[in-house]
Amino acid sequence: MFLFAGSISKSIHANDPPNILFIFSDDHAVNAISAYGGPLADVAPTPNIDRIAREGALFRNSFCANSICGPSRACILTGKHSHINGFMRNSSKKFDQSQWTFPKTLQSAGYQTAVIGKWHLNSNPIAFDHWEVLPGQGSYYNPEFIQMDGTRKRFAGYATDLTTDKAVNWLEGRDKKKPFMLMCQHKAPHRTFAPALRHLGSLDGVQIPEPKTLFDDYSGRSRTLAANEMEIDRHMTWAYDLKIRKSERSDIDLPSFRNYGTPEYNRMNSEQKAKWDAHFGPKNQAFVKAFKAGEIDAKQLVRWKYQRYVRNYLETVKAVDDSVGRLLKFLDDNNLAENTIVIYSSDQGFYLGEHGWFDKRWIFEESFKMPFVIRWPGKVKPGSRPESLIQNIDYAPTFVEMANQQLPNDIQGKSLMPILLDSSKKVRDSLYYAYYELGEHAVPQHFGVRTATHKLFFLPKTDEWQMFDLVNDPDELTNVYGKINYSDIQANLRSEYDRLRKEFKAPAYDYK
Ligand code: SGN
Ligand code: CA
User: For residues 213 and 355, is the Cβ–Cβ distance under 8 A?
Assistant: First the structure.
């Protein structure tokens, strides 16, 4: 069929079920995607993700239902909130694979299905003709992948590149008579934000703009914020996060929150270590020298850490963007671009210094948001910018409708098809959010609602309500809950919150 050229091949394609290429990363904040136009737009190295946004739609109001890795992935597979799909926390025992997932429907409809890269659901994938996944969080350098026979195999190289190689290999060898659904899921740019060696230094000399809230003092909001263990200032670890090993700083007194060691460095071979050291060594020496000379005060230290953190993070993003470029080129070169839907998304957002933080978990914008850009030639208008609130529970019903299949009737998400065909459409007026984790980074459980203009959430442990006016206070610095001039809005949000909890069958609070 690929012998035909131009319009003939197009018309044949138009009748075929579309292929779905879902490119997914871990902890990629919208602020680190140039096309989103945020404060880092000039330095975010994402020309290929930007290309998807240019040739398709970019959803500005895209959110997760639970801002943490495994739970977000479970929401995507099932189209249901965490308390219904059962995977409420990263530490949840096992993803219940007996329940409905969208790959099951696509596979039985004749799609060839594959997932490659990060899975993180304490189980082996089901309903995929092919899978090859990282164990747990996986490693950046010379990582292991779990094979379909259950064994682990170590591969030389860098996780993002290897994941892409495996995705391209699978596409090349697939059964070309069937449509495909491929989930290419990167570990990057998750902590420890370790770039491909070829990208080390690619942002040298670039000053990363600081967020307005880098020195947030957490006043005017829940007292729990100041107790979170995710501050660049107090909780970033020297070797693990900031890449200054003990041997490079042993003679200076730098307080360290915890010592996680250097697991990624230890995985490298001597050639890889040499490249790493050539990049970080002289910079670390200069930093230690300046620190010893008393040239760096407390505020400057936070600024220095911020620069190093976000530079590494963005350099890590660069290989993810390369991956997108390679996959788009594969589609172009193989006459597949016309009939393949391409999506780029990430499991949640991430703080890039906003509120002085790294990590995620909170319902605050930077970690609540998920990137969502989609190209679908002939259906999605190039350059469109839908405003509708969307959520990760919507992906499964969307994929099922794309494949023209039937959806079970207990799915909580909504198909985005109406918006894809007409970007002025909306699928909902409010979103429900629930975060259930218990330990790491000390972010308390919380549950909330967001509309186009406001956000309200509840912290059961401290029995606090928080409310934010997103129009007048986009950085979410002032809790307006209980303020007299917000009483009508507050009452509306409270009843919307109750309505959503009822509609979604949310369980009672349990914060032991
Ligand atoms: C790891 C990280 C945390 C991170 C969680 C969850 N610590 O535990 O910083 O918040 O993952 O991330 S690390 O020492 O292992 O890097 S998630 O994206 O998988 O949910
Ligand atoms: Ca994640």
Answer: yes
Q: Two tokens at 511?
A: 């914060």
**Among 462, 461, 447, residue whose Cα is nearest residue 496:** 447
Q: Is 441 in the pocket of ligand 1 (CB under 6 A)?
A: yes
Report whether 319 contacts 161 (CB < 8 A): yes
Measured CA to CA in angstroms, residue 257 lies from 61, 154, 206, 500 at distances of 35, 32, 28, 39
pLDDT interval class at 15 (50, 70, 90): low
Instruction: Pick the ligand that lies closest to the CA of residue 348.
Output: 2
> pLDDT class for 440, splitting at 50, 70, 90?
confident
State the CB neighbour count (10 A cutoff) for residue 198: 14
- CA 249 distance to own-chain centroid: 33
| 3-state secondary structure (DSSP) of residue 390 | strand
Residue nearest to atom 20 of ligand 1 (CA): 69
Q: Which ligand is nearest to the CA of 236?
A: 1
What pLDDT is attached to residue 257? Answer: 77
What does the pLDDT look like over 37-65, one tens digit per residue?
999 999 999 999 999 999 999 999 999 99
Amino acid identity of 27?
Answer: D
Backbone Cα Rg of the chain: 23
C-alpha 102: how far from chain center: 20
68 Cα–ligand 2 center, Å: 5
pLDDT per residue as tens digits for the range 150-199: 999 999 999 999 999 999 999 999 999 999 999 999 999 999 999 999 99
Contact 76, 395 (CB under 8 A): yes
* Distance between CA atoms of residues 305 and 294, nearest Å: 16
Considering the entire predicted model, what is its pTM? 0.95
Tell me the three state secondary structure of residue 398: helix
